[in-house]
Amino acid sequence: MKDTNTSVKTKVFNWIIFGLYALVIFLASSRPLPAEVPFFSHIDKLYHLLAYLVMSLLFLRALKSSALGVLSYLIVFLTCIFIGTAIEFYQEAIAGRDSSFWDAVFNGIGAVVGIIIYRFMEARDDT
What we know:
Layout: H1 2-29, H2 43-63, H3 71-91, H4 101-126
Helix pairs in contact: 1-2, 2-3, 2-4, 3-4
């Protein structure tokens, strides 16, 4: 019985971590952009890629014990795209922010890279 409780606690913990991370992304996206000039132009695209790479990894970890199989990758990709696009539209209403098609593209690229990394980690664990 203890293993079942541990398993349930782990699942709940993974979902909480994913939810908190998504909240952090939303809150960070709600702040006006700083006035400083970045070290190199378009560094924000790297931030988008990394943020959604991590989001997809956390989401896949939360879904790990589900019986969705390969479908979980599609669900994660589409959900990350939805969240990223919704946040881009939301940013239109934030003073000092704007939405960007390219930000949404890099959100999706980050999600795909995260899924690929997860697949490699999964394959390594199977050996």
